Amino acid sequence: MVNFLRRYLDELLTGSFLCLIFLLVPFYPPEFATPGGRALAQWVLRSAFLLFVLLLVAARFNSRARGLLRIVLEVAPVVVAVLGYVSLKLMHAFAVTAWLGIQSKDPWMMAADIALFGKTPYLWLAQWGLDSRLFLQVMSCFYGLYPFMPILAVIWFLFRGDTAQLRLVRRTMVISLFAGYCCYILVPVSGPLSIATPIAPIFIQSTLTYTFLMGNFRYAFDCFPSLHTANPWLLVWICRGKFPRWFMAVAIAVCSCITLSTIALRMHYGIDDIAGLVWLFPIAFLARKTLPRAPAQ
Questions:
Q1: Which candidate, 190, 91, 85, places its Cα nearest to that of 146?
Q2: 145 in a domain, yes or no?
Q3: Which structural domain range is residue 150 located in?
Q4: pLDDT tens figures, 112-149
């Protein structure tokens, strides 16, 4: 039984999560801020279901389709875990926080930032002139890279034929994402954007894309710990020695910019990012410990 759980933990977590969603939908229908949000969600789900069914049928008759199906099954747990974030808002996860009587921890986080840094870090960036439109546009690009990094990492090792590292990356990301979502419910933090400040609104807040995504899919209490910080650095940590040096240097630079973007765009407190950096060590340890033991040579 233990070996079964070690081998199929990713699939079990993914399947359990999907079953939970299917059970909740009839009782707690998803609520969207705009008709476009519902239309996008329906299009994605229907397209994914149709393509998967077609691939299953094709795999019975074609070897290339079987190879593609294997790729889909290897990557699917990470994709589901990444996209599972939107279920926190759509399936009213905030109601669980309210039912538990847990209040917003934003005042605590702001107080921690002031104690550690003298002020919340994005105010330091503004003081240093790092709040120009161009700088924030660049930061927005790095911030948007976050959901693609774990998927790309799994695909990288899949095509290199490194199954052991692929499974480690997948196990790490699945555990980190689902555990992080639980933290969002139990430690509700909205981030500096939820607190009025004397600084003028940044450009990203006025874009149609930002308004659409925030209104329809962003969960209100998704800051502690910062998974935007934790997961990219988790990938770097567990993949050290597996990437070429030049690639690792690029990855470290990108991770640094993603972490900086969480502060520059006022999405996270400094303490969120510190928690994200601490987060990577127990998650990496847990992922390695839950993988199947390598057979003796």
A1: 85
A2: yes
A3: 2-290
A4: 999 999 888 888 887 787 778 888 888 888 998 888 99
